[in-house]
Amino acid sequence: MFGSMTAFLIYFAFLMIIPLWASSRVKSTYNKYSKISASSGMSGAEVARKILNDNGLFDVKVEPVKGQLTDHYDPRKKIVRLSEHNYYKDSVAGAAVAAHEVGHAIQDSQEYAFLKFRSALVPVASFGSNASIFLIIGGMLLTLSNLVLAGIVLMSFAVLFQLVTLPVEFNASNRAMDQMVSIGVIRNDEERETKKVLNAAALTYVAAALVAVAELIRFVLMYTMMNNE
Questions:
Q1: How many CA atoms lie within 13 A of 187 on its CB side?
Q2: Residues 19-77: pLDDT tens digits?
Q3: Domain coordinates of the chain in residue numbers?
Q4: What is the pTM of this model?
Q5: Where are its TM segments located (predicted)?
Q6: Could you confirm whether 46 is annotated as catalytic?
């Protein structure tokens, strides 16, 4: 009994601490480098526009959006949206974030395989994420292993989405670094700081994937135990 309770507490701590640590790391790194001006003097909006134009993506718009770290690329409307601070200011963090989001726009224009796959997964992953837990809990309460299995299958699509997100995000960050260096947005001595911003942001996706995989494994083990009883 004591051993199982200890295992549960460790598992619960894993699920809670990893995402919180990743989120804290992102915010602290971003806050630090959002106060340091980029040597180019270019705002995030100017960095995004410059990289887009250099890659022939004149139809992709750049717009400000309210909030902090709300930056994203909308593939449906072909818009790079940057949080207001990153849009208007000339910080190292703002340049890195802007270039990263433009990296997604470049992926979209080049039909990057993992991005296309992730986009195709969105409907089933969204449904699986919302419905799976109800099927799993219902199956356990009613001792219906097939219902639990159905929930696990649905959850696996949500987990697959998290895993596919990793190469998409890392690739966008790699593209961001290459573009910023090539157009002179950052100097050689600024590359280290820029990488810190991009790596910190990547931690949130890694943390989300780890938690998703851990949850899936837990339910698979529970399903196995049900069938062995």
A1: 6
A2: 888 889 999 999 999 999 988 999 999 999 999 999 999 999 999 999 988 999 999 99
A3: 2-228
A4: 0.88
A5: 6-22, 120-142, 148-170, 197-221
A6: no
